[in-house]
Write a structure and sequence with these properties.
Elements: E1 2-4, E2 9-11, E3 18-21, E4 30-33, E5 36-39, E6 49-51, E7 60-63, E8 66-71, E9 80-81, E10 86-88, E11 116-121, E12 127-128, E13 132-137, H1 143-153, H2 165-172, E14 192-195, H3 206-221, E15 225-232, H4 240-250, E16 258-262, H5 270-288, E17 294-297, E18 302-307, H6 318-331, E19 335-338, H7 348-352, H8 358-377, H9 388-392, H10 398-405, E20 414-418, E21 428-432, H11 438-447, E22 452-457, E23 470-474, H12 477-482, E24 489-490, H13 500-515, H14 522-525
Parallel strand pairs: 13-14, 13-15, 15-16, 18-19, 18-22, 19-21, 20-21, 22-23, 23-24
Antiparallel strand pairs: 1-2, 2-3, 3-6, 4-5, 6-9, 7-8, 8-10, 11-12, 11-17
Helix pairs in contact: 3-4, 3-11, 6-13
């Protein structure tokens, strides 16, 4: 990255056909890049792009040194590049035969070699960054019972939010607010009682039911989870036996408490069942409370890297910082998972060149092709991925968005390519096939084994997860200030000259604090615990 005329424009790569506007550029003013003046011929909004050269209709324009769009009409040097004159273009990926394995120079991690975090050690040697009790249904019909159990446990056990909006409502109506002191937590070593609700488990295909059971089994087996309470109706597609089979496949030696209640088989009615559920869960919470955090090396961290509500600065500031963190953790023996396949469109060849194993190159290409084929079948394409907010704030083609999004994965070799619902079982960087949808992607990152998720945003988003901390990293200081209740770490100072390496050091320190339970993410503070699994088939 080479900055030019600080405060005005930025040149990301020497081969780029566009500059990034760091401020609003006005018609007639002159900016400089590489000691060359450029007169602005049409107004260019902050975060958007201005052409460095005259471009003819049909020209392929580069950003980040990679093709990101095709000119639909002539674009003069100094003119704004917009959806009116540029359309999505991505080169066709080529799976190279006999390609040599990637060569990687790992970063110097001397500073972090002896660092530790306070983790929760499980019997099989895996390490959690939290110790949660998890409650979920196998079918949407049981969502109410899940919510009943949450109401019966969360606030009485001292896990409620600091500010109760219901108290505010009562104050507006002239009522008396509770103002009760926070309940002392009887199970201080249990970080939370968390729930999952969803709209799956029946009415769709058996394939979707199996996929849901695999995801739920992965959550039950996750090192951040001490045990689970599971509700089943009885007649649904996602049968208890299907879930147990998924659990055995996930971990043949699964040994955590797994309390399962099937309502249609229960004698005595729902009220009696729910009282039994509360009693049983409290007994198991007392056992879960015996877990004590202990110092463990950073090699036990498994991060998922994700972006959402991205803007024209995401690929310049926050995403490269995540890439640096990812490389450091890989060098330390930890793991990193890069998801969102629609947002890797156009950079497939560079990612395939980083695959350690030749079959993974082909699998990545096949998963991308299958994904786009499914998109075509419902009348859309990857080109439709950028949201109105992305486009408004500078990401006007999917390839442009992808070129910046891929930087979250750093430069380390790719050790595995995974489909949705599969688990990253080895250290190093893995690719995980997910949609760009924020919650569907984070849901899969955690099921794949991420015990911390790093989530960059340029526009702001509240996304969280029931069992893993989701650390929100902003691309610009404006959103970090304006939406401070959503943001955990700001990378906007890079636009004023701060070094990405220094920001990566700071983010590493924050990750250690979150992983140790010493600091709470803003998503957890808000009680934002989202779960959506990717239903690939239709409802029947």
């Amino acid at each position: 990255m080479t900055a030019t005329t600080p405060g005005k424009v930025l040149c990301i790569h020497p081969d780029d056909d566009m500059l990034v506007a760091l401020v609003d550029l006005h018609t007639g003013e002159t900016v400089e890049w590489a000691q060359q003046p450029l007169t602005i011929r049409t107004a260019v909004q902050r975060k958007h792009k201005v052409a460095r050269r005259d471009c003819a209709q049909g020209d392929i324009l580069k950003l980040y040194g990679t093709p990101v769009g095709k000119a639909t009409q002539p674009i003069g040097a100094g003119c704004a590049v917009t959806t009116d004159n540029l359309e999505h273009y991505a080169p066709v990926p080529v799976v190279g035969a006999g390609q040599p394995p990637p060569v990687w120079t790992a970063p110097d991690v001397t500073r972090w070699q002896q660092a530790t975090f306070q983790g929760v050690m499980r019997a099989d040697g895996r390490v959690g960054t939290a110790n949660h009790w998890l409650i979920f249904p196998l079918v949407f019909c049981e969502n109410r019972n899940v919510e009943q159990l949450r109401d019966a446990l969360v606030r009485p056990l001292g896990y409620g939010q600091d500010e109760d909006l219901a108290d505010f409502t009562r104050s507006l109506l002239g009522g008396v607010t509770s103002n009760a002191p926070a309940t002392a937590r009887p199970f201080p070593n249990v970080d939370g009682v968390r729930i999952i609700t969803h709209q799956g488990g029946c009415g769709g295909t058996r394939a979707d039911a199996r996929s849901l059971c695999r995801i739920l089994a992965a959550y039950a087996d996750h090192p951040n989870v001490a045990g689970v309470t599971v509700f089943s109706l009885g007649c649904q597609n996602a049968q208890v036996d299907m879930f147990k089979a998924a659990l055995a496949e996930q971990n043949p030696h699964f040994d955590k408490p797994c309390l399962v209640y099937e309502q249609q088989e229960w004698e005595g009615g729902e009220a009696a069942m729910m009282k039994t559920v509360v009693q049983d869960t409290l007994q198991q919470l007392a056992i879960a409370n015996e877990a004590v955090r202990q110092p463990v090396p950073l090699s036990h961290l498994r991060i998922g890297v994700k972006c959402g509500g991205s803007d024209g600065f995401s690929g310049i500031t926050a995403n490269p910082v995540l890439g640096l963190v990812s490389d450091r953790l890989v060098a330390l023996g930890g793991g990193s998972i890069l998801s969102e396949f629609p947002e890797l469109c156009g950079v497939e060849s560079s990612l395939m060149a980083r695959c350690v194993h030749a079959p993974d190159r082909q699998r990545f290409a096949d998963l991308m092709q299958d994904f786009e084929t499914r998109a075509h079948a419902v009348g859309t394409t990857f080109a439709d991925n950028p949201s109105p907010g992305n486009i408004r704030d500078g990401l006007i083609t999917d390839a442009m968005k992808s070129a910046g999004a891929a930087r979250k994965g750093g430069s380390s070799p790719i050790v595995a390519v995974l489909d949705y619902g599969e688990v990253a079982r080895q250290p190093g960087l893995s690719l995980l096939c997910t949609p760009g949808n924020d919650v569907e992607s984070v849901t899969a990152l955690v099921s794949a084994g991420a015990n911390v998720v790093l989530f960059t945003t340029g526009l702001g988003t509240p996304t969280g997860n029931p069992i893993a901390p989701v650390v929100k990293v902003s691309s610009n200081t404006d959103v970090a200030t304006r939406l401070s209740e959503l943001i955990d770490f700001d990378c906007g100072s890079i636009l004023q000259g701060a070094k990405p390496e220094a920001l990566a050091d700071g983010l590493m320190e924050h990750i250690i604090a979150f992983a140790s339970g010493q600091q709470i993410t803003q998503a957890d503070r808000l009680g934002q615990h989202d779960f959506i699994f990717w239903r690939r088939d239709i409802s029947l």
